[in-house]
Design brief:
With about 300 residues, the chain is mostly helical. It folds into two domains: about 140 residues, no CATH class; about 90 residues, no CATH class. It has a two-stranded antiparallel sheet with strand order 1-2. The protein is elongated. A hairpin with a 6-residue loop joins strand 3 and strand 4. Zinc ion binds next to strand 2 and helix 5.
């Protein structure tokens, strides 16, 4: 997960339309959950070759085709961050039906984070649960109260972090799985929101642990090891080898700043300090080049 800015003007024309506002007011006023339609919150193109949707494409402008939760490049479900029809943790709750078309409540989520025992209708909170929409004196919806970054929704203090509201860098670190099965993410905040988010979206599933290594570590490892092989057989001299290592380290740093990269949060974590770099990257390198690479990292 990484922090994302999602502009309001990326909203689809349908979501922004007066017709949708009227339909939403009816749903919110009468709690007519059966009227909630994916023709509005998803808006499929109806293309026979693939199930892409207009909302998905608009979310991809800010999320660069990545899942909001795990940062894989993946086909996205249109996920209601606050579930629209029921809440697993509270069977007296009718779901956040009044947020069914709310832009800040729509996130792109891969199937693995959203279904298959993962997030779905889970929404545990630390704070005060909101059960009903807020209306103004003229019986219109209070649109400020619809937004995830505003009270009263903010006061719910959801365990699940919201990539447009919370800064994930303050909630997570990473470490190598002790049995060598990839890289694990770990919550570090006192309120346990990081760890709860990991549990809700299954962010330590094996597929993700291994993909973090494959996408983030292996390109660097292969380049560094091949430079060392060139040095060993005399094709590179010491200077050329050092330059290659510096070049590859710079690539790591550039990719960490590139929001289009997969697993941006891990990439940022790795290059943040030589301790993080040592802990995560060095164990994947052969022992002769570990100290060389660490010294090069400290030098840049
Ligand atoms: Zn995902």
């Amino acid at each position: 997960m990484r922090f994302v800015t999602k502009p309001d003007n990326h909203k689809t024309a349908t979501l922004a339309s007066q017709d949708t506002a009227n339909a939403l007011l009816d749903i919110a006023t009468n709690m007519t959950k059966d009227d909630i339609t994916d023709a509005i919150y998803r808006e499929s193109y109806g293309n026979p070759d693939e199930k892409r949707s207009r909302v998905e494409d608009q979310l991809a402008l800010s999320y660069y085709n990545k899942c909001a939760y795990c940062e894989r490049l993946a086909k996205a479900d249109i996920e209601h961050y606050r579930p629209k029809k029921k809440v697993v943790e509270d069977n007296t709750h009718n779901g956040y039906y009044w947020l069914c078309y709310e832009w800040t409540n729509l996130l792109p989520s891969c199937v693995k984070c959203n279904r298959e025992g993962a997030k779905h209708s889970k929404f545990p909170i630390l704070g005060i649960r909101v059960y009903t929409p807020s209306f103004l004196a003229n019986a219109q919806l209070n649109l400020n109260h619809q937004r995830a970054e505003n009270t009263p929704l903010l006061d719910e203090m959801p365990y699940l972090l919201h990539p447009e509201v919370d800064d994930p860098e303050a909630y997570f670190d990473f470490f190598n799985d002790p049995s060598g099965d990839g890289i694990r993410i770990r919550g570090i905040d006192a309120q346990n929101r990081g760890n709860e988010t990991i549990g809700i979206c299954l962010l330590n599933r094996q597929e993700l642990r291994l993909e973090r290594v494959e996408n983030v570590i292996n390109p660097f490892k292969q380049a560094a090891e091949s430079a060392f092989a060139m040095l060993s057989i005399g094709i590179y001299d010491e200077d050329q080898f050092d330059q290659q290592i510096i070049f590859q380290l710079n690539q790591l740093m550039i990719n960490a700043k590139n929001e289009k990269s997969t697993h941006t949060l891990l990439r940022k974590y790795i290059v943040k300090s030589h301790q993080n770099f040592s802990g995560i990257v060095l164990p994947y390198l052969s022992s002769p080049i570990q100290s060389i690479v660490l010294a090069a990292f400290k030098s840049i």
